[in-house]
């Protein structure tokens, strides 16, 4: 097994354990067992549990960022890119966002593990601010804009788990979410800019 393969195997195991047990509940022993490695291997590679968990979330954040967190000058397409990347993340790891939402309020001391996700939020916020400065979006706190764009995904993903199993799953469309979002957030054609 190559060094890269071993690292991926450890990070995958850590992510599965985080989703199952929560950040506060996960142990290096559980991660090592799931990865099929010695616990010492984890400490040799990552130093401590915090660094390991930070690496897991940073890897996931980097994957999301490469999918669609870029300013292109096309508001709709940029928001679709952000939305699609977030949809892909929630499809790949359905329990990740609910776990994060549950853990953060109860364990603020774990905030340092969330560097990767915080960087994603900051990058998306910068894109939103740029469009606000161009007058293409109404001025408001950028995180509020982001929350109203991505919040429906969280609600829909959680809600799908409550539906009867015999119903076909509803495919969430990034384009439709963005169009609904822009209808309420786009600056009306006669309104003045910032």
UniProtKB/TrEMBL annotation:
<dbReference type="InterPro" id="IPR009057">
    <property type="entry name" value="Homeodomain-like_sf"/>
</dbReference>
<dbReference type="Pfam" id="PF00440">
    <property type="entry name" value="TetR_N"/>
</dbReference>
<feature type="DNA-binding region" description="H-T-H motif">
    <location>
        <begin position="27"/>
        <end position="46"/>
    </location>
</feature>
<dbReference type="InterPro" id="IPR001647">
    <property type="entry name" value="HTH_TetR"/>
</dbReference>
<protein>
    <recommendedName>
        <fullName>HTH tetR-type domain-containing protein</fullName>
    </recommendedName>
</protein>
<keyword id="KW-0805">Transcription regulation</keyword>
<keyword id="KW-0804">Transcription</keyword>
<dbReference type="GO" id="GO:0000976">
    <property type="term" value="F:transcription cis-regulatory region binding"/>
</dbReference>
<dbReference type="InterPro" id="IPR036271">
    <property type="entry name" value="Tet_transcr_reg_TetR-rel_C_sf"/>
</dbReference>
<dbReference type="GO" id="GO:0003700">
    <property type="term" value="F:DNA-binding transcription factor activity"/>
</dbReference>
<dbReference type="InterPro" id="IPR050109">
    <property type="entry name" value="HTH-type_TetR-like_transc_reg"/>
</dbReference>
<feature type="domain" description="HTH tetR-type">
    <location>
        <begin position="4"/>
        <end position="64"/>
    </location>
</feature>
<keyword id="KW-0238">DNA-binding</keyword>
């Amino acid at each position: 097994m190559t060094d890269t393969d071993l690292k991926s195997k450890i990070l995958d195991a850590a992510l599965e354990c985080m989703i199952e047990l929560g950040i506060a509940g996960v142990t290096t022993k559980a991660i090592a067992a799931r990865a099929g490695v010695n616990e010492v291997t984890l400490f040799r590679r990552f130093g401590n549990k915090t660094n390991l968990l930070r690496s897991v979330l940073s890897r996931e954040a980097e994957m999301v960022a490469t999918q669609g967190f870029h300013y292109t000058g096309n508001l709709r397409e940029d928001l679709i890119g952000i939305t699609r990347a977030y949809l892909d993340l929630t499809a790949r790891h359905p329990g990740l966002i609910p776990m994060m939402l549950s853990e953060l309020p109860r364990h603020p001391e774990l905030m340092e593990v969330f560097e990767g996700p915080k960087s994603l939020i900051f990058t998306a916020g910068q894109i939103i601010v740029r469009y606000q400065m161009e007058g293409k979006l109404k001025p408001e706190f950028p995180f509020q804009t982001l929350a109203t764009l991505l919040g429906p995904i969280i609600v829909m993903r959680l809600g799908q788990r409550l539906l009867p199993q015999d119903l076909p799953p509803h495919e969430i469309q990034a384009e439709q979410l963005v169009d609904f979002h822009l209808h309420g957030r786009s600056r009306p054609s006669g309104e003045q800019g910032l």
